[in-house]
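Q: I have 80 residues here and want to know how they pack in 3D. Can you give me a structure?
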Amino acid sequence: MNAMAKKAKNFKKSKTGVYVSLASTAFGAISVAKQAKLARNDNDTLRLIDAAVSAAAIVTGLAILYRELKRLGDDDVLLG
């Protein structure tokens, strides 16, 4: 494994990497909200179900990232 790949792998486990993942997941929530609104306006049940499942995946992803952030920041006063 070269140095660049190792650095990228360690970035995912860093606080900064977790914050970037949290932000990108939160931006995904905006897309799901737009999809749900469009589905409600069109009375499209299948798209509404898809938006609900996607929203559940986003919530689960955010919970996992929050847990990882707490694990990384056990000594951080702000995270508890």
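Q: Anything worth noting?
A: The chain has three helices and no strands. The helical segments are 3-12, 15-42, 45-72.
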